[in-house]
Amino acid sequence: MSNFPSILTDEKANIRNGKFIDALFSIDEKYIDNVNFVHLVRIYHDAKELNVRNKILKLLYNFEFPELKDFFNIAYKKERYLDMKIYALRGLTKFISEKEIEKLLHKFNATLKKRQESTPYNYQEYELLRGKNALPYLLERYHYDCFRETLQKVNEQYEIMPEVFKGIFTIDENGELLQLKNPEETSKSIRDFFDNHK
């Protein structure tokens, strides 16, 4: 008997249902196989909820089922948040050449630069991109110069930010958020920062 949650195989199940969300967020990667992964792909395409799409990208980005090439390609184009683009690219990198990745990252880096101008204190996105499951993982695994260059740009933009926005949280190898500072103190520090810079 499969340990893959049956509720995730039900095409009529409501994505917002508590049991559905619990099943999705508690599933272990080891129960995903070359048959049942299609349910996660379907859920991703049906989901408007960012947290659901984010979770599915992270559940699937370690797999090499040939059908996932198209999935990750579509996901990379679809997602607007840069961290989710990188999660899609982590999956896609198994199927495309370094030259193709360079092309994607050229546009990615242009968007990253615009982010710095439009959202100068975008610490959440920077921490997600710097997470151990994101750009550092890709650089360590593939050693491509394009990953090194993009990570360098992320780190440069991160370093330019005021200290109050740094070191609030980090992301571990499994894509889990680790809080480094007390959330209440962080909120107060950020409020104080903006009060002093009006």
Q: Can you walk me through this structure?
A:
There is one protein chain. With 198 residues, the protein is mainly α. Helix content is 60%, strand content 3%. The protein is built from 10 helices and 2 strands. Strands 1-2 form a two-stranded antiparallel ribbon. Strand 1 (169-171) and strand 2 (177-179) form a beta hairpin. The mean pLDDT is 96.
How many helices does DSSP assign? 10
Total strand count, please?
A: 2
Mean pLDDT, all residues? 96
Coarse shape: globular
Order of helices and strands: HHHHHHHHHEEH
Spatial order of the strands forming the largest sheet: 1-2
Compute the CA-based radius of gyration.
18 Å
**SS-based structural class?**
mainly alpha
The main pleated sheet reads as: 2 strands, antiparallel
Summarize the structure.
This protein is mainly α. The protein has 10 helices and 2 strands. 60% of the residues lie in helices and 3% in strands.
Give the tags:
about 200 residues, two-stranded antiparallel sheet, 10 helices, 2 strands
Write the layout of secondary structure elements.
Blueprint: H1 18-26, H2 37-46, H3 50-60, H4 68-78, H5 82-92, H6 98-118, H7 123-129, H8 135-142, H9 145-160, E1 169-171, E2 177-179, H10 183-196
Antiparallel strand pairs: 1-2
Helix pairs in contact: 2-3, 3-5, 4-5, 6-9, 7-9, 8-9
